[in-house]
Amino acid sequence: MAASQQHTPVEEEAPAAARPGERETAPGPAGGPPASTKPGTQKPGRRRRVETTLFTLPAFLFQLSWGWYPMIMAFVLSFTDAALRRPVQFTGLESYQRIWDDPLVAQSFRVTAVYTVLSITLTFFIPIFVAILLMEMSRRHIRWMMLLWFLPLSGVASTVLFRYMFNAQYGLFQWVATKVLGLPPQPFLNSADQVLFWLVVPGILFFGPGLIYMATLQSIPASYFEAAEIEGAGFWRKMWTISLPRLRPIISMLLIFAIIGSTQAFEFPTIMTGAEGSPGGAARTVVMYLFQLLQQLRYADATALGVYLFVITMTLVVIQRRFFREDPDT
Amino acid sequence: MTTRRKVLLGLAGAGGAAIAGGTIYSSFANDDEDSGSGSDIVLNIGGDWPFAVPTAKQAKADPNVKALSEALGAWQDDNPGVRLKKITVKIWEQKHLVTAISGGSGPAMFPGLVVGNWNGGATKVAFQQGLAADITDLVKKYKFDDKIADFAKPQWEGWPVNGKLYCMPDSFNAGNGIYYRRDLVAKKGLKEPGLGWTWDDLRTLVAGLTTDRMKGAAFQKWGMNWPLVAQGWGLLTRVPAPSQKWHWKYDYTTHAALWTEFIELYRGMIYKDKSAFSDSTLMDGEVTAAFTQGRAALFGNNIGFFFGDPDTDNTLPNMAKRMDKPIGELVGFVPHPVGKTGYYGASSPFMGVTSFSPDLSEEALDKAVSLQNFLTYGKGYVIRKQALWNETKNLQKVYTDPTPINGMTQIEGIKGDMAEAWGPEIVKAAEISAGLSTLPDEGAYIPAEKDAGPPNTPVEDMHSHWAFEKGKVDIRADLKKLTDTHNQQAKGFTSSVDKADFAAGAEKYYAAVTEFWQEKAPDFVSEVLEPWLADVVKPSLEA
Questions:
Q1: Residue A169 and residue A32 share a domain
Q2: Is B469 an 8 Å CB contact of chain A?
Q3: Among A29, B227, B356, B529, which is least packed by CB within 10 angstroms?
């Protein structure tokens, strides 16, 4: 207790010195000797270790209970028959083999791949360009455009609304297609060839991650653009040499989220096309099929499919991390 | 100055306060939703099913709750020491219910079919996995199977799972059929549909009802299923194959000509005649709304849609009220059209069942079964209806089910019956529908599997492809692809049933099927069933 009281002022008066790397030489407590002359070489005190542990413990326990433990258990379950209330039996790779041989699994991966490519192409890259264009407008226009684009919308409510708008019999889009544009009646979600495209379209209107791009663009010093303009740089040159490189770290991070999100697409296609991803399973993603397996009480097969999806997603993320440079100055 | 220590202390304080507050709150919560006190047995009632545990305040305000309260009071008088406790569980969502039961926190009773996602076969698999209590002995004790109405008894015969019972019948639906605008049929001088009408008759009727502003029919996204099931799809597309690892194989090509004819008929109504519409987003609600709003003159569903709330939009009674006509004169109901040779399958009646928690003690399980028996077949049902009558004097509030599982269509002390409540036309339609003999259930002959086997997903995919692909479709190629896909899936499964037992059960099942259809549709037997049994099933069973 006494030791604790003695150390208290140290923490209160020089908290910044505790972060190695921020200063080459930090002053010691109460005018004492420097805490360290080299970053990273300071040996933390016992209290700091306890505090660090206490700070970390809740997050660690939470992640362990709700993240790692279920993931490990799912992996273990995939090698059993995953019976619910009878003794579980080890079945080896049986579930993996069954899932591998299932033609509908291959179909669902194809659907997910197309959906991911379409989704990232249309709802990830377009907002980058739109955000840069918006920044070229006057401040008044920027405010209006941001207000229109970034209205907080309920995802599920909007999705249900879009489902009705896509209705081939009496939907708003059909009215636009036939009465306004004079086209023949369109199948929209009823066509296996078109359904994935129409599923992605609302994402364009929601503007995806545009707000984050705009926030990043606004943080770029105006002097960069002014200097470029003095040098005679036009819109494309400024975009290519200033805006895009400065956005690169954000693009990199959001791309990972977009890949993970698209490969795990479930709610939106389910609400729009039903649990079966009709017509003909053309909109049934991997996670939708996984959910069907759960409904059939095939827990081992569902976890095996989950493991396949995890491996593929992880591979994509690793490739992205390997080839996408984040530092704008490299 | 805020230090890490202060933050830690603050967090610890906030956490401690939350825990203490939560403890105090939970000690007071739900007291008003319990029934009984000082009890030895607690029955958890989840998701307000089969009833919402009533409070005194609710009973005062709502005649329905008051009636239930009276019935429960009568049961608790005979069963002192039992407390009914409301718990929160999403009882109609399979994943929530299965999770709750698996974790030992499920309700005392629940709708049995939910654990199998409304699929009878999957439900029996769930029962075998231990998701419901075995109530075989309690069925004998309470003898409720003797009290099931005659029209529902054949359905009950399919529910034993390898000799054991895991559920109690709680409701009976007279089956699916077609609702049509009776007034428009008469106005246009069209022939009114009746029992035994065909899909060609339906196509003619739908075309005759179509106008510039109203389509002849609206079909749910699964509408393609109906004309095919009416021809024997399901029975004729699965072949017993005890020599295979999974004892069934799939064959959609043997009767390809038959399937092609009716797929083209359905597509013809939508794309050629333009007399019907369907969409991959159309569910029950949308189709019913199209009918009640005058956008479609015909739709398909179960007979329960007659008995909606007159004050709720898009219900049939509301439509009748709006148009100021008796519902029986405005809307007709008829079982689905039959197949070419007289087979019917799409109208088959449907039974709801109650299952019980596998974690209940022997005594608690007895009480739970006793309570559901009391409310479904016993005095509780009568007390509830009589109390409701005394409170409302409204027959439509009292008689809400045209085919009650207990057969009570007239109750002592209530002036009037089902026909008086809803009109003779509707009651007659329900009787006709309920009177259709239930098809033999393979579960009564072939031992149940421990795993559900390959799902029906490839079939649903192909149905939606045929229904919604506007351009040309190669049906024969699709049927071949469907056969290959389904058989490829089947290869991954292993039957838990002994090969010889399966073969013996299958032989008995097909003998029962032949006998049944010999009486109902002899043309189907001679032209379709017998040749198929001889050429396809027999060689496969003997292989």
A1: no
A2: yes
A3: A29
